[in-house]
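Justification of resources, computational component.

The compute hours requested in this renewal are based largely on the per-chain cost of generating structure records like the one below. Each record pairs the submitted sequence with a full structure-token output. That output is archived, and it is also reused by downstream analysis tasks.
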Amino acid sequence: MIVATVYKTGGAYTPEHVRMLEDALGADVPLTVYTDDLEMLSKRGSFARQLTYHLPGWWSKMELFNPALPDDIIYFDLDTAFRRRPKLLLDPVRQPMILRDFNRPDGLQSSVMAIPHYFKAFVWKHWMEGPEEWMELLGADGLGDQAFLEKVSYKFWGILQDRYPGEYVSWKVDQLAGRSLPPVARVIVFHGQPKPWDIPHDRQTWRH
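The structure output for this chain reads:
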């Protein structure tokens, strides 16, 4: 099992954001980065996987499902913040797990996922039927890769908020800028804006 993130060059994220996620996870949780950054690939060695399909933006996350790579994966977006280590990291990856969308109770949100290797081929087969067509069909709503996962695999995903009640919170939807974190919260999801590095340090309540 690997703990992974995706860093695609040319967008809003930088190698510094990879370092920040790595620091937040802790030195005893090695982070594998799926990336097209050649310098990062060279420096990280076995803790990097090359993005090879040149997909734009968040669509690069689809390469997590390439079954040619044998790992079970626990995935975090680069803008994930941690108050304490998520229990997900302590459990084996036996079934696909994903967040329930904080804005759409019937939707999925791919900021955090557990992806067992056996599940990859099913998703990848549907994706490779026509990546360009999928991106055109599902790109307009701004949901990207998670819209595709909803379309082809919704019924197979377990929901992280149900498995780990109270552990996952949304900075924006739960209005955490103006109040303390709930006591059981461990993972703060920063979908959209702001990002964790936009919050003044003295208001980064997950650090307190």
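The helical segments are 15-25, 38-44, 117-127, 131-138, 145-153, 160-163. The longest strand covers residues 108-115.
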